[in-house]
Amino acid sequence: MDGKQLQELRKKAGLSQRALAEKLGYTGRGGECTIQNWEYGKQPIPMKHFRKLAEILDVPIETFIP
User: Fold this and answer.
1) Cα Rg for the chain, rounded, in angstroms?
2) CATH number of the domain bearing residue 40
3) The pLDDT of residue 36
4) How many CA atoms lie within 13 A of 20 on its CB side?
5) Cα–Cα distance between 28 and 2 in angstroms, integer?
6) What is the pLDDT of residue 59?
7) Cα–Cα distance measured from residue 48 to residue 54, given in angstroms and rounded to the nearest whole number
8) Are 23 and 52 in contact (CB under 8 A)?
9) Into how many domains does the chain fold?
10) What's the pLDDT score for residue 66?
11) Are 45 and 38 in contact (CB under 8 A)?
């Protein structure tokens, strides 16, 4: 999954970057920056978050597996 796809799924779910970060256990501005980095391709999404992201965004976990 690339960052653009993550951004589209996040918006479809009606979540801000900060809200998604908080659901993943990140707090404050740092969490929001983490999601931005993923969406802009500056950092890869860590595998440890695939399952939780799939649940939050209501997509199959395979969506995140290259």
Assistant:
1) 10
2) 1.10.260.40
3) 97
4) 29
5) 24
6) 96
7) 11
8) yes
9) 1
10) 74
11) yes
pLDDT of residue 60: 95
Residue with the two structure tokens 């969490």? 31
pLDDT, averaged per 10 consecutive residues of the chain (66 residues), comes to: 92 96 93 96 94 96 86
Cα separation, 7 vs 25, in Å, equals: 18
Q: How far apart (Å, rounded) are the C-alpha atoms in residues 66 and 63?
A: 8
Q: Which residue is listed with tokens 């997509």?
A: 59
pLDDT at 45: 93
Q: Which token pair is 54?
A: 């799939």
Asked whether 64 and 9 are in contact (CB, 8 A), the reply is no
Which single residue is written with the structure tokens 């740092």?
A: 30
